[in-house]
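User: Predict the complex with 1,3-dihydroxyacetonephosphate.
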Amino acid sequence: MSNRVIMAAGNWKMNKTPREAVEFVNDLKDRVANSNSEVVVGVPFVCIPGVVEAAKGSNIKVAAQNCHWEPSGAYTGEVSCSMLKELGVDYVIIGHSERREYFAETDEMVNKKARAILDNGMIPIICCGESLTQREQGVTKEHVRYQIKIALLGITAEEASKIVIAYEPIWAIGTGKTATTEQAEEVCGIIRELVEELYSKDVAEKIRILYGGSVKPENAKELFAMPNIDGGLVGGASLKSDSFEKIANHDA
Ligand code: 13P
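Assistant: Here is the predicted structure with 1,3-dihydroxyacetonephosphate placed in the model:
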């Protein structure tokens, strides 16, 4: 058994208004008060102030779903890391496949964002994962290794040991089609091996690697019990407090 704390991170994507977000977190905080997992909600930018306030004194941490890498400037519509830090954000999700697909986020941008997040005292949750075609063509390993190698350029060993990586096969996102426990474990293991190759065994032992893609109460326990899977990045099932509670309390 590793010493890594299991993380149950919700990615709300573009869901919930600020008011709905506060109501949700107020309801969730008692439900997860005794959870052994680290509970994180990844919320839209406009929900952050209310959610941080609602989560005060609870064990719920707050993630943003994106950021810009520059400290400030003429970037209409963007949000900097210092803005997020000032609001009390703990984690920032970057490189999600939806951002890569719909907003042309590249590995190089993910790397710049990771640098900026760490420089501002927050932790990046770096997403990676292959498409169905890539899996069928047998290039999953190469693809995920490439994504993570670029994302981690210039990141020190000390920083790397704190960050979180989320392996999310694109074909399993929002499809109800979860990767098998073996498939998820295999790729999370490949990522851990890469981290050992890039840094050391010690960093590989510390870094947390999540699985994402149709995680639900029915499969969370089995997935999170795998040696290389340290929790989940949860989309749809994180929007309902009943199901997210069950995922966070999967070992209860
Ligand atoms: P679903 O859990 O809805 O498949 O979404 C996964 C995801 O994209 C989390 O970031």
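The chain has a mean pLDDT of 97.
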